[in-house]
What does this fold into?
Amino acid sequence: MKIAFYAPLKHPDHPVPSGDRQMAKLLVAALTHAGHVVDIASHLRSLIPEPTPATLDDIEAQSRIELRRLSALWQQTGTPDFWFTYHPYYKAPDLVGPALAAQFHIPYATAEASHSARRNTGVWSKSQALVVAAVTLADVNFCFTQRDRAGLAAIAPQAKLEMLAPFIDTSALADSPCRDAPNRLVTVAMMRKGDKFESFRMLAEALPLILDLPWILSVVGDGNMRETVVQLFGTIPADRIEWLGQVVPDQVSGILQKGGIYVWPGYGEAYGLAYLEAQGVGLPVVAQETAGVPEVVQHGVTGILTSPGDVGAFAQAVRRLLTYDADRQRMARAAHAFVNSERTLHRAAVTLDRALERAMARRWHDQ
It folds into this structure.
């Protein structure tokens, strides 16, 4: 099929790296791997950073221009077989795809659509209504977590929902598991306010509790909060932390492979692709049992998940993996096997392809 792909928050070619951009790229890769022809239909960013009427009015005006552009283009070149929108939510609704799908009578799909009841106020209540309408319209909605699936089922009971487990391109990982440098802790994260900063704060509070052990932390990432993040770790000897800054994606797996344990609390993580990348090279994970993290880390099997907000428990989990070689190595082997067998691009491609074919068949049957 010819698929028109759209990511209203951050298109796959956006210059700023993030998990959202990475997943957009992965979805395009998986759809292509399944044999479909994928076109990035639009680079329009419908981000509503602050819930002001003026912001929404401006985005709606830009969307109308984009609708006219694509409508004229398709009348000349022909329509795609499917429209596929990645991550529509209250801050970045899809204001283009549903209208075009209705106008040209083509199937519509979403992936990682979400709804937050606590954001149902003011301008964001309007943008959330647009998300609900899109999810209800869709011929198929791919949910990455049970949490998101339950949320969509609650606000759109008639929505057609399919599970698609978070995945990565395992071909980009090292062929063999990491060398198991037991004293090397690794984390990969952007340095920005909000949940990312809170995770850095918790990590900075937990690590001083295990200074009696001979570990070194390698931190990959950068952002506008870098200076403040570094200050959080001020009570830890400088030679215990390696600040690597932002690195190109191809270098991340090499850094992970030199480690022994992946540590990241994961406040508010939708799921966290970095957890999969770390496990993919054989790093056991220490994180909190919160948000979508349990969807990508198997507690007691591929890592240890601690109670949310419990700094002491987090520190003790890291201590356990630093101290007990058998536990660390067992979880390392399980992590490597889990990602490289169950969370691959190929497996995601098969899931996507079969669900899209079913959606297409339903549409033709209903017509």
About this structure: The chain is about 45% helix and 15% strand. The chain has two domains: 2-167+344-366, 170-342. The radius of gyration is 21 Å. The chain has a mean pLDDT of 93.
